[in-house]
Automatic annotation (TrEMBL):
Protein name stated in the entry: DUF885 domain-containing protein
PANTHER family, per database record: DUF885 DOMAIN-CONTAINING PROTEIN (PTHR33361:SF2), GLR0591 PROTEIN (PTHR33361)
InterPro entries, per the entry: DUF885 (IPR010281)
Amino acid sequence: MSDIASHQLPRQVADSYVHDLVELDPALGTYLGVPESADALPDFSPAGEEAHARLARATLERLAGAERLPGAAAEEERRCARLLRERLTADLAVRESGEPLRAVSNIRSPLHTVRSVFTVAPTQTADDWSAIDRRMRGVPAALEGYRASLAEGLSRGLPGGPRQVTAVIAQLHEWIGKDAGWFGSFAAQGPERLRADLDRSAAVATTALAELRSWLADTYGPAVQDAPDVVGRERYARWSRKWNGTDLDLDEAYAYGWSEFHRLHAEMRSAAEKVLPGATDPWKALRHLDEHGEHIEGVEETRVWLQRLMDETIAALDGVHFELADRVKRVESRIAPPGSAAAPYYTAPSEDFSRPGRTWLPTLGETRFPVYDLVSTWYHEGVPGHHLQLAQWVHVAGRLSRYQATVGQVSANSEGWALYAERLMDELGFLGDPARRLGCLDAQMMRALRVVVDIGMHLELRIPAHSPFRPGERWTPELGREFFGLHCSRSAEFVDSELVRYLGMPGQAIGYKLGERAWLAGRDAARRAHGNAFDLKQWHMAALSLGALGLDDLVEELSRL
């Protein structure tokens, strides 16, 4: 260890880790806005995965020394040190159990990183496109490394799930297309003078996708066809720690999911009466809205409508319920590339805000979109949800650390805030329209279903006696899909995509409701502590400026504000 490194405090150790991590993961560098990362892709091979593990172990050793230094007990150092230790320990537990060698998912995997990084790459100049050209030429090596990891997983008896494999093969069909495919369409946006090079590199990347598709269909898929789709309690607990930043009592969480199901079901029944008088089934009322409710016609028209919704929401909230910096107020509405998973998503701004935060709408081939579903979802993905939190972190990164503002993100914290944001907009009166409020409750219900189905399937728990659905039976993916479909307004295609998502990302989907519970508990504790002096706007801005925290620390930190 160098003399400089030996005198680093925890926040400096954390930021050194980010620097070293970007060296290993150029895709992360692009998301952060690091120009030097623009033309490379990560090494997804077993050797690349081991390099990540070595960096985590070395950083933990350096952190132990840093925590002994004078100054390490300061609150800002202590908070960062706890986050860094928890995140690296959780990451190592997942890596050392071989999970990267079975990483097949319809939403988050090396394969998806290879494509998604191009959607956030700078495209303003010819130099930007030259970097994109070089990066596209690196797609075959990146996918070969990924394939080597999956093959190593097979040799070690670590198979991915067969449902995930089937879904990914279907996604690859769409990415490859019949003509130029996704990479070809993306390259066609480049400058004319680079077009020939870009077209050749896009063809190389598309060929690599086709080769991976063939290998998954002909070799990997048959080898895992009898593997279980669910992961069991031990693997689930590791993944749950990774996504939630705490060791959950999974049986208590499962029971909480059911209690939220029953609470929301009763509330939805009452709200449905206001949408369709006489309706006792809330999903009948939602089907009525699908046919007769307010809609946006056209994909581009919907993108523009969502942009206007976010801009209007910022104008309404700023100065009243939040105090927003000018650069945080900028957020863009985008349409997700074809072949994406069904759920909308958000990408954070680059560290210098040259690329703003963006929301992404997968269209799934649709051109007509119901407003009742869009509004609450964009409060979640955009404003005041993911965008206000993650952009605020970047804005105050100088007071935190680079790590706390970016890489240290804990899914349950962020998803919990975004779900809290949906509820907040209802509390503030933005969902006075009965259809929009029923849509918000439907979105809340979906997150309760995730807790029940995700934990129930993977742990193969028994469905309780108070369930209106197959009481006493044990959960299977088939029952999970049926239950979800019966209590959700989304399309069959969406529900199918969600099921595969849960199977491929165990423990992630439960963080929405459990994270929201933590945010509400922290707010309630702060309100009790301050009494009539409690200032919600002040609390919101202080909470959004804490940076990343796991659920182990979130309630405590929020309660102190």
